[in-house]
Amino acid sequence: MGNKILLLGLFVLVLAGCATSTRYINYTDQRYPPKDEFYAINVFPQSQAQTSANPYYVIGKVSVEGLTSDGVSPETLTNRAKVLARKRGADAIINARTEVYHYYYGDQLLRFIGELIVYAPAVSK
Amino acid sequence: MKITLKILFVFLFVSLLIIRPTPSYAWHGRTFVGVNLGVWPGPYYYGYPYYNYPYYSPAYYPDYAVVSSSSYQPVVVNGVTYYLNNGVYYIYTQYGYQAVATPAGVTAPVVQAAAQATVPTVVDTDDSITINVPNNKGGYTAVLLKKSGNGYVGPQGEFYAEFPKVSQLQVMYGK
To answer: Which chain B residues are within 8 Å of A63, Cβ to Cβ?
Structure first.
């Protein structure tokens, strides 16, 4: 029984560690206070270009990827990106897209790419 | 057996604790924060897919993905450097790329209709057909095809068993 629990723990640990891989590139040395876990991060796809009417700063680029054989789905990746965005203090993710790479042995690599933005404070005139 | 599993478990746990950060590959030379979990993440190696090289099968040459820092193309307008990304102009500040309005004097690029490459203008005569093939210079190159039996002969003497597609003619006459 003990061995089974150990094996199960080992399996869960391996799965948790290998399911997704996250990368982040800072565009600036500026740091922003993290958002709380209930903050809703909007994700705008690449096809939906943002306008400068609502001024914002692009602070970095996030890339999250994982294999479908590990149970990774586009939603999983998007949620991971949102978690990172909150941690980095971002307000939204723009230019978001999910790339799919097919392997000859049938597996698929999903890669979410997006850029984190913070809205610029309103300028009083 | 139980001790072996325990040792393995502890080893894995410790190895997870001492994971080193992924080194910086960002083109901008800025910080690149990531965690190397030992999973081969994809077919990219320095931005190019392995699949371009027949002997570099991803199954045999695993490596870690390198994500380019940005796709911001610098554009100088009136002496000011803007960065263009996904149709939006930015200026670089200490807070990051700031979205700005399209600079004065910049016109939006004109996207040429894709249909022009698929529907060529065809002029028929008795035994020849002239096709205007779109070329790389933005214009058209007139290609005269002469009927020969059941097929067609091009200006360079090449034979087409069937009426050639524009994409076929572009290979030879679209430059």
So the answer is: 65, 67
